[in-house]
């Protein structure tokens, strides 16, 4: 008798029978996931109105639409967070309904949220296997086995992290990779990724895309929500567009370009995406010179003129918020000068 026992991930439940019972997505039903006539309302607003969607195995389906189009609401319904008012979800050709995120996970649907759901004071291994901890012969948590399984999982995904590292010590990008590893650990057939590149560098984006390519080659279906069109045309097989809670249409990514995609999203043809606007620059209202805060940001300089809109861009954790807090007097700077309307403040 073995000295240890490994707790397997929750088994996928038996699904209700249907006309295509027992068939793979490649037989009678060519789709891994089908959404039909889904509607969802909240007090005072219709978030989704009779929408539909379908996902093929081994493909990436990009979901596009302006903020408030209903993308995230639909994904939360698929992931069991919300329940629809009307409509049907079919998984592998069989109708199914989810009352909790756990029931969706057990059926083979995992969602990677834009807001990361990790415990900062727990290790990577503990975060990945929380609720599914491996047990030894004494029915106690087998940390060595959890470490081994986590190391194998991270190696398979080419993620170079120590399973025992506390999540709180990781960068935002590294935490994103842990979320992906956690979703993959469920051996889910459908993975939903909500803005996964919003806070990672270009190098990390390429790594993510290579992981997506591997998952696609394994027959997984991936729903990818993004606002970045270059990503859509780089990794998506199909693109579905939503507008104001309604489903507009689905096309092969290779048959579209940026202009046609924008037109579907906004409902009209745009002749100029960024039209030139001639406006003379006003006087300098705010001048920042060599502003620094040790360990946070260094030598920040800019001028803001009357009539201008100045954007401060950067990844999460790059110091954008800290600069703003320094400008508003919340956090004193170590060095540098701030002048407002010609006067040092």
Automatic annotation (TrEMBL):
Catalytic reactions on record: D-galactose(out) + ATP + H2O = D-galactose(in) + ADP + phosphate + H(+)
Gene Ontology cellular-component terms listed: plasma membrane
Keywords tagged on the record: ATP-binding, Cell inner membrane, Cell membrane, Membrane, Nucleotide-binding, Repeat, Sugar transport, Translocase, Transport
EC number annotated for this UniProt entry: 7.5.2.11
Domain of life of the native organism: Bacteria
Membrane topology: Peripheral membrane protein
Record localization: Cell inner membrane; Cell membrane
SMART domains listed in its UniProt record: AAA
UniProt entry tagged with the keyword Endoplasmic reticulum: no
ABC transporter domain sequence ranges: 33-269
Matches recorded under PROSITE patterns: ABC_TRANSPORTER_2 (PS50893)
Record region (Disordered): 1-20
Gene Ontology molecular-function annotations: ABC-type carbohydrate transporter activity; ATP binding; ATP hydrolysis activity
PANTHER family cross-referenced by the UniProt entry: CARBOHYDRATE TRANSPORT ATP-BINDING PROTEIN MG119-RELATED, GALACTOSE_METHYL GALACTOSIDE IMPORT ATP-BINDING PROTEIN MGLA
Protein name: Ribose/galactose/methyl galactoside import ATP-binding protein
Species: Pseudomonas syringae pv. actinidiae ICMP 19096
